[in-house]
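hey team, just a heads up i'm posting the complex here instead of the shared drive bc the drive is being weird again. everything in one block, sequence lines first with there labels, then the predicted structure for the whole assembly after. its two chains so it's a bit long, scroll down
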Amino acid sequence: MENQLPIIIVVAPLLAALFITALWWFERRLCFPISIIAGVVSLLASIGLLLQVLSGGGVEYRLGGWAPPFGIVYRVDQLNGLILVAVSLVSLLNLAGSRTLAENEFQDKVGAFYALYLLFTAGLLGILITGDAFNLYVLLEIASLTGYALIGLGRRRAPLSALEYLFMGTIGASLYLLGVGCLYLMTGSLNMEDIARILPTILPSNVVVLAFVLCLSGLFIKMALFPLHAWLPNAYTYSPSVVSSLVAPLTTKVMIYAMFRLTLTIFTIDFAFNSMAVRLPILWLAIAAIVMGSLMALAQKRLKKMLAFIVVAEVGYMVGGFWLGNRDGMNGAVLHIINDAAMTLCVFMAAGAIVYKTEDDRLSSLKGVFRTMPVSMAAMVVGGLSLIGVPPTCGFFSKWYLISGGMAAGQYGFVAALIFSSLVNTVLFFRLFEIGYFEPFASGRAHQQHNHTDHIKHSDSIAEAPLDLLVPLVATAVLLIVLGIYSGEIVARVIQFAIPAVIS
Amino acid sequence: METIGDLIIAKYNYWAVIALLIIGLYAMIAKNNLVKKIIGMNIFQTAIILFYISIGSKKGATIPIIVHGHGESSHVVHAADYINPLPHVLMLTAIVVSVATLGVALALAMKIYSQYGTLEEDEISEKIMESETA
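-- predicted structure starts here --
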């Protein structure tokens, strides 16, 4: 059984999606339990894999028993072992909290939602675990197509936003495919480690440079790095709440992992950092992403759109941390992948709870929400403090690593951008807290309070989100603090070994 | 310095791929109608499929099916006589992905049509502006 863990991670959600598609017509109430079982199986398998990797080094799994480079291999090392656990945990937490919201939003199409959810999770887990460049494209498209369909399930502007996301995402994936084609043209192989072995023998080569640029550009579109981020705000704002709290924490982070894998394993550090002069331009793009994401977030009047622009800024953190080129920066970038997945899940789930109850996500109509929804807003406070970077939440520690890396590399622009982003996040979230805590109810209810003094307690009654949403939300908020306290352990025991030894 | 022949005529397949990529990209950006954009996306993906297939071909080679393949007859197979089948197989997957993307795009376009009554992007933008300011 332990040998089959890599394939179980991907196959469990895939099979469950097929079951749900078949069973949904007959017995609707089975959809949710089957999804939960698949999510738990994936999570346990990924934890088992991480433990195997920590005790024994890398794990390799050959699909169909075919040896590389002819067969497809799944390779797990410290880098993707950790992110596998994070992605399956985030997916399961969101799934656990989705029952009431999904029933309310989709009614009789709820089976389709769960099937798409599980396919999306299977695609992401596959991207994380695969060791074959073309297989990465296939799983990338599985995750993307189900993502487009999930986002298109919303109301109002959702189908249009999903179509625009589809156009940009398809261009990105096609550019990646073209890059893999150029690599195949030059090396004759699709296996990541095999390509890495052959590339140094054929360098210098214009085609390899082209392949690098194409693959990287394709992934930049997919991860919404400024200025290719235009699809993200609309897609995340207008999608249903359950969908945005699944897609927002995971999509961009997994694409950033794909960029790591591309640069560290296929093209190797020597080529990417030394031979190609892209390190500084990409760093400037990351700085622009952080600054523009934060500024655009300040301008928003809707809660979810503000959070979507914060995601754009967070992408800049991770891309910049990686392309700094030193150990602290890369440690910070990988740690931030984990932390940002958790933080984004927390704030988007809290936003989902608020939108479910108030039916309106304009910031001005969130007055007094702390009184009616104390638990959800408490979770939002923890998420907000983590995004600002307040210890002991996890956001502080990854920001610390990123700033240390920036100082060590002499990139003070990056350090200034990080500090600017923290200040802007402070303004954003404290504005939210002020509206929620201190301003009275909207004028109609305040009038009622004056006339019916004995009804004051009734109008202040707690109208909290449903319990099955609150429990995962509180669990996520606690996770943020736990991740923060154990940051040192995570870096020392896992992330340390994920970064190649040549980086100082 | 390579001759014009080496630069253009010998590499005609790459020029065809580039031309199709640019046509597809132009259609996606400049056309107003959503269906024309979707067709442009399809042209873009087809160009990449053409790229892969063209790099697998060889001069004077035939389709990669070994005749007299069954039985124990000892025929030595020279790889140079058969075109490379691996890019074809990879592109089968890419074609399936392209068709699935087309399906999702058309389903979304149908939903947009039922919401706004039009598939022209400028008219949709106007309707959105009206409903936001209303």
